[in-house]
Amino acid sequence: MFGLFRKNKLVxxxxxxxxxxxxxxxxxxxxxxxxxxxxxxxxxxGSHICLYEDGTELSEDYFRSLPDNAELVLLAMGExxxxxxxxxxxxxxxxxxxxxxxDAAKGLLSDERSPKRRKLLGELLLHLKDSxxxxxxxxxxxxxxxxxxxFKTKSAYMKYxxxxxxxxxxxxxxxxxxxxxxxxxxxxxKKTAESLVMQLKSDKYNGCYFNRTEKxxxxxxxxxxxxxxxxxxxxxxCISLHSINPYGNRxxxxxxxxxxxxxxxxxxxxxxxxxxxxxxxEALQNRKSSNINLDYFYKxxxxxxxxxxxxxxxxxxxxxxxxxxxxxxxxxxxRKGL
Length: 338
Hints:
The protein is of the alpha+beta class. 37% of the residues lie in helices and 10% in strands.
């Protein structure tokens, strides 16, 4: 009797596979199921309705307690909804609908005034506009803007990018010679530096680290070009889970230049400017360059054994306050007073 006078409750309802929400008025869950099934073309038999927010399935009593404009999801028999995290999962799998998502994000961004929401939408657009599957210049001309025409592929440029960083480290080694006052010591240091250059040339300046076409053991990225931050020099991993794919778009390529190849050692961690180079000079005080364990210093300065890729936030510029391993400085024997 009293059910005849129940007030219509207005809700917003959608199906599992659509994001468009429809306003529907109903006095009961049964009526809402009938209207929703017809509107969204979902079979009525076995259908059920859940809260969009957390996936709670509605009963008649629960329906009556809902506030107006509650967001609901109509599900067919066998379908499940775990809450809005389902939409997040769908968003992460953007291969099929990336163009639609890009258009939708652009539309939202054009009307958005909140700085925080604009930032989030902007970052979403950055990751959606991914062309990492392309490799050649003619297939992604935007990615190559500002890059010398001699680079025909993304991998070739990224290889050069890594080589340039390693060359920069070698320049630091060379320039340190100017701080050495003793002529004999400076001469031995320069000989050592020349040997390091020869080794670098042989290894092609380890440009393979940024080249996604290299074998997995030789590169720091996935085959698709994704790099993950390896954490600060005093951490085993990145607690913020930073990642980037400079192969994806031009902006990501530019942002990747702010990531650092930070010096560390497996245990303990070692920094080049304050520890490695001075230790090399000290080792040459009373020995010739031919006595130096060149391979040890080469690995500390230029290889992934003592280099870790880190997001700029994880790059700590404070002194590491750790020493080289005295046992590995020379090719043989022990060094007195070292």
